[in-house]
Design brief:
By secondary structure, the chain is α+β, with helices and mostly antiparallel strands. Helices cover 48% and strands 14% of the residues. It has 2 domains: 312 residues, Thrombin, subunit H; 281 residues, no CATH class. The protein binds arginine (ARG) and glutamic acid.
Length: 721
């Protein structure tokens, strides 16, 4: 009996281990055929890996773009129309907005190409090809080299490779480490620089549910916006020019309006930013026990202050909504991540893994020599790292979390070049222009009473967290001159600093001359900023830099060791903002005991959430009318209008705007978020709890066609029904 029980237990354990890997992974497109194609097809995919990534013929990958620096977009028409999230296009939509022409609130639809709006500075990037250059990169790298020598050699080789590719080409190349420097790939990119805004729904659709619904399911956010790529007459990337023409893409993704069913195969193709799946337990401990709780605490303080003002005054709400969204997004993510890790017993799970790993190491003299000291070394490095990270968090979230301190930072470079005798007037004028521009952006969205309040709250917590000798010098000054009274100190700073308001800022900088830098040096907000930055430069940065080198080199060895320890596992490299494929199935889930979440939401849910008194839950009459008349065109699902759905795809930040594709490689959704219970997937993936959230493509089409009356855009697309 007992024997049988153990047998059962061990099979269950084995099952768990292998099941827990299903759906996990951010795969390299170049290796799909060898590593994933079979599994993808077994799960239901009907196309080949070659149709996803191919460099000899056009393939799906030619339609996938890095949008700006941190989102994904995809090409959905032969005229270069591209789709991404509303929150990814937010800054551009906001820039085109003004009082009386508020595109964020009202939405925007270009009714013809003349009306499309240019966005200087915005780029989209296509991966032309990638290549494994590991051998060439590691040739001549030896175990005897110091980390410094190794880094230097790697850098030189990388530059050699990119120079070869970029020579006589319009493309940009970049060599990146994968598996913590055990492998290297060169990525060749084509960068488009004329990207125009075509359409965006009003915020009460594009941001429906706001920061309250963010990271949560059931979700009803119409999180999309439309742009178009423009090129020169030869169909090549070019700087903005009025006579540029719409881009003729190598591939444009057809759109399926057939919808999804439970267990349907789906995949996500995009640019995930960062995951850390292979860290040791010490790192998980640092992140979940020290970094996350402190970041959560400091951000909550700021959010409380922002919210108390935002609900009072619509003008302030507009000024602070983007700042609030950014703070809140991280705040909520870290809460979810910590809960998820706790639920998985994350630290113990890692410790268990490390025990097995260590036994395996100890069992061989050769392995002992190679990997013997690894875990102890991590332990030591992370011990030191933890305190430095804590300092860093307080500097960034509390010190520089005070807005007037950040305003003073705008002038830092101008002051430092002014101090140098040789600096020419021309150089000064150039930097001054930057300062004035940044100032304009800053004061447009600055409300002093909020900052005054945050100043006092944040500096008080800052002081409580560290012993006096581990604090930036400004705190000693507060003690000496204000008997430690931060409130009084705040009075002085906000009264005396030129950074306290727009008028004093521009009075001073509009008339700036090189010799005037001394006045800035004496400014109390500038002094504060300097105190924080000096502390960072002298105490925090050197420690973090030194330990980062140590940890990087340990991770390189540990990664290799983990792959050797579990050769049966199919290892994917942690996300590094390069193009990846994740695949899974449409699935509901149980977030907690007694609760079941369906995989699809519909317009009905929007009507249920409607609250005309809460900004984020306002529903427009037009939408209600369409709902009441069930006027869904061909996009409806019987009597229902689908809005969002979830699946088990492994995604992370950067996957926003990524296409969700069906078994035939057709567009069925637009990725924009993850469910809260699964946000620990950046550290540890749980197929039971991890779900990515996608906009149902039919809701997007319905919005463009029926709600906005921009059917001419839908006409550009290839719909499959
Ligand atoms: N959580 C999503 C992401 O990480 C959406 C963020 C934007 N939306 C918001 N309500 N703040 O980017
Ligand atoms: N909203 C995230 C982004 O902007 C995607 C959600 C996630 O982190 O999975 O990239």
């Amino acid at each position: 009996m007992k024997k049988y029980f153990y047998f059962l237990l061990s099979t269950i354990l084995i099952l768990q281990v292998s099941v827990s890997r299903a759906d996990e992974g951010l795969w390299i497109p170049l290796l799909l055929q060898s590593l994933n194609e079979k599994e993808m097809q077994d799960m239901g995919m009907r196309i080949s890996a070659e149709e996803i990534y191919n460099i000899n013929n056009s393939s799906l990958k030619d339609a996938i773009l890095l949008f700006g620096g941190g989102c994904t977009a995809e090409i959905i028409s032969e005229e270069g129309l591209i789709l991404t999230n509303h929150h990814c296009g937010y800054a551009q939509i906001q820039k085109h907005s003004s009082i009386g022409n508020d595109l964020l609130t009202d939405g925007f639809w270009a009714m013809d190409k003349q009306e499309e709006l240019p966005n200087p500075g915005l780029t989209v990037t296509r991966l032309v090809r990638m290549e494994d250059v590991t051998q060439r990169m590691l040739d001549g790298i030896t175990g005897e080299m110091t980390e410094k020598e190794r880094a230097k050699a790697i850098k030189e080789k990388g530059e050699e490779i990119t120079a070869e590719i970029e020579k006589d080409s319009l493309y940009k190349a970049s060599v990146r480490p994968f598996y913590y420097g055990n492998e290297y790939y060169v990525l060749v990119y084509e960068i488009f620089k004329d990207v125009r805004l075509v359409g965006a729904p009003p915020s009460n659709v594009g941001k429906f549910g706001g920061d309250t619904d963010n990271w949560m399911w059931p979700r009803h956010t119409g999180d999309f916006s439309l742009f178009r790529i423009y090129v020169n007459k030869d169909n090549e990337p070019a700087e903005y020019a009025e006579d540029n023409v719409p881009y003729k893409p190598l591939y444009s993704i057809p759109i399926s309006i057939k919808g999804v069913q439970e267990d349907d195969f789906t995949f996500i193709f995009g640019f995930p930013g960062r995951t850390q799946e292979y860290l040791p337990s010490d790192a998980i401990e640092m992140i979940t026990q020290v970094q996350n709780p402190n970041r959560i605490k400091l951000r909550r303080k700021k959010l409380d202050i922002y919210e108390s003002f935002m609900t009072q005054d619509p003008q302030i709400r507009i000024q602070y909504s983007l700042k609030h969204a950014r703070l809140s997004n991280g705040w909520k993510k870290w809460i979810g991540e910590n809960r998820g890790i706790q639920k998985l017993d994350g630290i113990d799970t890692k410790l268990g893994f490390e025990k097995g790993f260590n036994d395996w190491v100890q069992a061989s003299a050769e392995r002992k020599k190679k990997y013997g000291g690894l875990l102890e070394a991590f332990d030591k490095s992370y011990d030191e790292m933890t305190n430095a990270q804590l300092e860093m968090i307080y500097l960034v979230e509390a010190g520089l979390g005070v807005e007037i301190v950040r305003a003073a930072r705008i002038a830092a470079k101008l002051v430092s070049i002014s101090e140098i005798k040789e600096t020419t007037n021309e150089e000064i004028q150039k930097e001054l222009k930057v300062v004035l521009k940044k100032g304009e952006g800053f004061y447009k969205n600055y409300y002093l009473p909020i900052d005054r309040k945050a100043f006092v709250v944040l500096l008080n917590i800052y002081r409580e967290e560290f012993p006096p000798d581990q604090l930036p010098a400004i705190f000693a000054l507060i003690d000496k001159k204000y008997k430690g009274n931060i409130d009084e100190f705040a009075d002085y700073v906000f009264k005396k600093s030129m950074f306290a308001n727009e008028k004093t800022f521009f009075d001073f900088f509009d008339n700036y001359k090189k010799s005037k830098y001394k006045k800035v040096l004496k400014d109390p907000a500038f002094t504060m900023a300097k105190s924080f930055i000096d502390f960072y430069g002298q105490n925090t940065k050197p420690v973090i830099s030194k330990l980062s080198v140590e940890i990087d080199s340990l991770m390189r060895i540990y990664m290799q060791a983990q792959m050797e320890y579990q050769p049966e596992n199919n290892f994917y490299p942690d996300a590094n903002s390069t193009l990846r494929v994740a695949y899974g199935k449409v699935k509901p889930y149980h977030p907690r005991d007694g609760v079941f979440y369906e995989y699809q939401t519909t317009l009905k849910g929007i009507m249920e959430k409607e609250d005309p008194n809460i900004y984020d839950y306002v529903v427009e009459d037009k939408l209600k009318q369409l709902y009441n008349q069930k006027d869904y065109g061909k996009y409806g699902m019987g009597d229902e209008m689908p809005v969002c759905f979830i699946a088990t795809n492994h995604t992370t930040g950067g996957n926003s705007g990524s296409p969700a594709l069906n078994a035939d490689g057709q567009l069925i959704g637009l990725n924009f978020d993850r469910c809260w219970e699964g946000t620990m997937s950046d550290l540890m993936f749980d197929p039971d709890q991890c779900r990515n959230i996608m906009l149902d493509i039919r809701y997007f089409l319905f919005m463009v066609d029926k709600f906005a009356g921009a059917g001419h855009l839908v006409d550009e697309m290839e719909l499959i029904d």
